[in-house]
Every structure is written in structure tokens, then in C-alpha cells.
Amino acid sequence: MVTAEKKDPVLVVVQLTGGNDFMNTLIPYTAGIYHDSRPTVGVSEDRVLKMNGELGFHPCAAPLKEMFDAGDVAIIQGIGYENSNRSHFRAMDIMHTAEPLTIATEGWLALAIQQLDPAGKNVLTGVSFGRGLPRAMVAAGVRVTSVGDLDGYGLMTSVEAQTQRAEELDVFRRMYSPMMDTTPSLSYLHQTGDDVLAGIDQLQTVPGNYTSTVEYADNPIAKSLRDVARTHISGLGTRIFYTQHGGYDHHAVETVNHERLLTELTGALSDFMADLREHDAAEEVVIYVFTEFGRRVQDNGSGTDHGSGGGAFIIGERVEGGLYAEYPSLDPTTFANGEDLAHTIDFRSIYATLLEQWIGVESKDIVRGVYEQISPFRAA
User: Fold this and answer.
1) What is the spatial distance between Cα 73 and Cα 375, in angstroms, rounded to a whole number?
2) What is the arithmetic mean of pLDDT over 131-147?
3) DSSP-derived pairing of the beta strands 285-291 and 322-324
């Protein structure tokens, strides 16, 4: 349990939307079955950034390897759950609510925010950067702020603010209203819109108060993480941030697209950590990078199809870097569904770890049970 911190611990969640190909992110480069199964999308051994005698990083993930070599990255191998769902919407819904068996209406991070700020005093306790409010941060009575673009947000007129409020509500309504009772849903929609407006006055000052020598790239995830850094450095009391990086559904042309996305992602993560360090604001921040599922072992001639047995990353100065859980077996007799990497650790174990050991909230009701935790954090 994290105690006696100089500053409150902060969690930054990065969602890789579409199903990141973990097998091409952390590559079993010595395994013949890897190269035999992936004649099109496989990465040749000479290009792999080797970690040890069996595994290595994709060549476009060099910034992530550098952070790993520095001891700041915990790699969660084979993350998933029993009977993994291959539907994007359902799989992401499961990850957002920590409920694989039934349709749940409360997000795991929203329930954490509820414990952190039970009276809902600070609408910025939870902040999402990107269009629409992620389901992970949705629960009736929980106040959060959703921001598309911090620079534009800070320059809004009252009319523009009302327009964004309407747009955010429309996105939220289309995504989640069918799963919520009519009256509570309408009430929550109005509250969400009010919270979007309530955060404007506080967030308007953020861009003008920030300077940095770090030059982020011009892509969506870099811009979002820069917004996270600026908001965190401003000291507005945000404890949970959420960002998204889309485009990982590589059924076709995977090689080119995955290279681009890993370049964007890992570069942005490296710049974000450098920015925090420059402002003496890195020690209290941990990043959790996840995706809804992995990809199948065999490529399809151009890309890879939906699978399971994915991977996640926990990044930060307080992280005890290394490999956690086991890399899924490459023995075909162990494959889930006869063609997927099988999971080796339940994703709720990682949620419980982050909630209890980092954020400092009880996890049992959030993950709906007790799960064995890992130990990815250094002592203060």
C-alpha cells in the first residue's frame, strides 16, 4: 500500500483501441512458430530490439525499450480473462467495467473516483482527454470532466462551451443510453454536461501557465499526453486521467500501420515522462497502457484478426520494471479457441494492484471479487 506520499498518487490510463498486437510488440523472436505463423507481418530477428534470449521489442518501440532498460516499465504478459470476447464493443465494455459475465453500468475508474472524492467536490478528480466520455469513467453520481482539446477548451466562449456540452452529451447518449434506465440516464446526461461546463473556468488557465523544453510530436496521443502533463503540473487535484490512441484493429496492412502507431505511442510516452521530470512531477505519476484483446497467432496474409492473450504496461519512476506473469505458451495445443494465445493473468488482478497499491482505494467491490495481485511498485 502506498503511504505518506509528498504528493497524491496519480494514475494515467492509456487505451489502445482496436486490439494491439502484443505478439508483435513484445516479440518471441527465437520461436520458430512465430516466424512460421507470420510470414507477412512477422518481424525478422535482426530487427528486434532484444530484451533477453527469447523476447524483444518491436523496432519502432525503441523509446519504450529505453524506459524498460531504465527500470521504469513493468510488462504484464498474457493479460486477459476466461472465454475472451472477440467483439470490440463487448471486449472493451468488459475492460471498462471489470465485469465479463453480465452487462454492467459502472466503470471501474468511476468507482475509484467515487472513493477518492465521495462528495463530488472536485469535477477535475477524473479527467478524460478525447471525444466522448469512456465507459470506464461512467457511474451515476460520479463527476468527471471530458475534454476534447485543451487549447481549444481554454479559449471557448460561453456559446462554444454550450456547443461542446451538446456534442459531448450526444456522443455519450449514443454510446451508453441504451444500457441505462431512462430517468437516471437523462439525469446523468444533464449532470455530465454541467460538469463539462464546470471544468472550463479551471482548465482555461492551464495552457497559459505551462512552459516546457520538451517538444511533443504532432499526433493525437502526443497531444493528449501533453494535455495530461499540463493539467497535472497545474495542480488542479486530478487523480485519474484517461486518454485514447486508436487504430489498432489491423486486419490488413498491419506492418505499416503498427509501425506508425508504436512510433507515435512510445515516443509520446517518453516525452510525457521527460516533461514530468522537467517539472519535478514524475514520481507521483503511474501510466497504465492497455488494450481490449490481443491478436491471433497466425497472420491472415495482410494483418491479424481478433484474438486474446494480450499485454499491458505499467510505467513510472516508482515502478519496479521487469516482466510480470508468463508469456503465453506458443504450444499450439494450448491455444485458446485453437488459434489464440491463452491468457496467463486476469486483467482484474492488475486493476486490483493499481487501485490498492497505487491509488489507495479498496478494490473488492470495483473488480467484484478478490484477485491475486502483482508487486510492480518500488517502496517510497
Assistant:
1) 13
2) 86
3) unpaired
